[in-house]
């Protein structure tokens, strides 16, 4: 498991302790930024700001946070095409530069999965 510890804290949106380090893990669903941990934790009745590592340690909680993020931030964008979901999940991937390759990679995987499921990927695949 490749894990780095990064500060994702925006005091202007939701208070958080300066000591809170949120995990950025490459092989597990994750939230980023304190406001996601704070509001998701509030909605799931878990104190995720105090114990963000619980998301990586508890598979059921990891699924609940992924489902929470999807229904809260992404679901409404889905009708606008896959590109809108990329923007909802990680808008930085739609800003050009090195991030453009990441968005292109997501689109490639999406098209591959659609092919395996024998469904059309639809229009508006890019950011």
Structure description:
It comes from Cardamine amara subsp. amara. This is Endochitinase CHI. InterPro entries: Glyco_hydro_19_cat (IPR000726), Lysozyme-like_dom_sf (IPR023346). This protein is mostly helical and 127 residues long. The protein folds into two domains: 3-75, Endochitinase, domain 2 (2-Layer Sandwich); 81-117. It is 46% helix and 6% strand. It contains five helices and two strands; from the N terminus they run ββααααα. It has helices at 34-44, 54-57, 59-74, 82-89, 99-117, and strands at residues 3-6, 22-25. The protein has a two-stranded antiparallel sheet with strand order 1-2. The longest helix has 19 residues, at 99-117. The model is unreliable at 1-7 and 17-28 (pLDDT under 50).
Blueprint (SSEs and pairs):
Blueprint: E1 3-6, E2 22-25, H1 34-44, H2 54-57, H3 59-74, H4 82-89, H5 99-117
Antiparallel strand pairs: 1-2
Briefly characterize the structure.
Residues 30-73 form the Glycoside hydrolase family 19 catalytic domain. The protein is mainly α.
